[in-house]
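Hey, quick one: can you model this chain's 3D structure?
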Amino acid sequence: MKPVLKKIYTENNDFQHIEVIKRNREKRIRHGEFFVEGVKAINYAREYNWKINTLVYSTEKPLSRWAADILDRSGADVHLEIPLKLMEKLSDKDEEFSEILAIVSMPANDLSRIRIGSNMLVVVFDRPSSHGNLGTLIRSCEALKVDGIIVTGHAIDIFDPKVIRASMGTFFALPVIRLESHKELLPWFDRIKMESGNFQIVGSTAKAEYSIDEVKLARPMALLLGNETSGLSSNYKEVCDTLVKIPMYGKITSFNVSCAASIILYEIDRQQRG
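Sure thing. Here's the predicted structure for all 274 residues.
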């Protein structure tokens, strides 16, 4: 179906809707859509068949071959053509602003999006407070074959443009689910344990007794990560089968959480490869 073309020249209701979706978490949730910027992010969204509601662009200067191709084969409901000065106002790029911006539909916030199987690996990040850390974690999870990420507790918005940007678009490559607390997650863990029989829950903490190379980190498995400041909560420690730490030799007492996760995920993959 051909997109509806809208041409606007001022900060009218259509423009203001895009702008508020970009900056306001509550409005994103209410409308069920979020703001996406960047070539990699838009390419990932298309590759993994996310529903694109609106593409925003300007024709006041020639579009690149990439941008023209995106518009020709977008599948979006609406193409919103705006002046360059409004594109610049919406873009977060430091230098030349983006050729195309996108408004993408949110998928169902449902654990059923995560594949359950004998080789599954899921990462739980409790109460992340840094957009950069969450985005970086998503990149590592995509690179190291994680099946899904679950964010719990009072946390930053997983659909914040800063998270999408920090993930380099890999946000679209795997399910990222948001739950209010660990209580919503426990029945799902119990179900997986009943179905698989050997599902293990491993928590990361600098105060653990065992190092990651001393523990068999075999799939199926959930890796639990705590808040950047307070670490893994007592509620999560209680449900873990094992707590692990990364050997450290300097005076610093802990790794950055996304860095620690990357190291542990690599060790999981190394052990699996034998």
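One thing worth noting: The mean pLDDT is 94.
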